[in-house]
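Something for you to look into today, if you have time. Could you write out one complete protein record for me, on any chain you like? The space below this message is yours for that.
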Amino acid sequence: MRVAVNTRFLLNDYLEGYGYFLFEILKRIAITHPGHEFIFIFDRPFDKKFVFAENVTPVVAGPAARHPVLWKYWYDVNVPAILRKYKADVFVSCDGFCSLATKVPQCLLIHDLAFLHYPDFMKKSHLLFYKHYTPKFLKKAASIATVSEFSKEDICRHYRTGPETIDVIFNAAKDIFRPVTDEEKQSVKNKYTDGKEYFIYAGAIHPRKNLVNLLKAFSVFKKKQKSNWKLVLAGRLAWKYKHFVESLKTYKYRDDVVLTGYLQEEELVKVMGSSYALIYPSFWEGFGVPVLEAMQCRVPVITSANSAMQEIAKDAALYVNPADHNDIAEKILLLYKDENLRSRLIAKGVDVGRQYNWDRSAELLWQTINKAMH
């Protein structure tokens, strides 16, 4: 079988979200299915580390698909031409988009419908594209998957898609996320927080991640505890970050907030594993991988209720109303004051973390790819 795959999110300068998912799953699928051919379709020059095995043929089809006009061109002109040239049997796309201009069966994976729930957090041109084309993509796809039961129910509710037509393929955390030693913890604190304890948020700096309410909650914590603890925000500056950065300039506790920028994985593991707790109050996620990453590092988690994170973390986290900064602050204070609670959450998190692994996810995606063929 010749499997063509949209790999435009395998970016060497940073891997996030879709990119991590592709990297972990495609690596396993290519290696465990040596009798099949894989055509990886990039939209810009690629790193050779993404050619995982001898049965992978990389193809670059520019220009880079960076906005709706080029998305349309890439999926409906470039992709069909490559599918024809390489005589592909199936096209796999894990970024929520597929081609409307090919007869080749397509396997589509949609991570979430955040654009419907928080439209203000997206560029208007992007929002219009998602709203107009997502139902068409769902109709066109021969097989469909998403990353949680939460997202599956959301897709079924908004697009009247039959639940039997959508497979759930969970994300996982990489094995590299692990507990760190006391020496590593002290070294990280010396490097980032002047030796002080800290809470961490891990992910892009983006309005949907709810960092303004996190800052407000941290203010409440600082006022009530008179603590020298810090808040580390580990992630790149993404879309609409300027308002957040401007608000930081006048933030009373700005000297206690550390922006690391994008961290390479090895460094993120150390910074995550050295923290007192992960606070991940995102308004909307299809899954919420940092929650699992923290659990594998034996770091307790505070995250959003009534979300995919609650499905994933089960009883191994404290849950907040993301719209209520006082609720977030209350849970931070609770964890700060109760070491026994913290220990219980860490132990439960280890058990929850074991339930997710990339080998299983890769096998599930392979099944969904095969389903597209029948």
Q: What stands out?
A: Residues 2-172+357-372 form a domain with the Rossmann fold fold (CATH 3.40.50.2000). The chain has a mean pLDDT of 94. The chain has two domains: 2-172+357-372, 182-353. The longest strand covers residues 37-42.
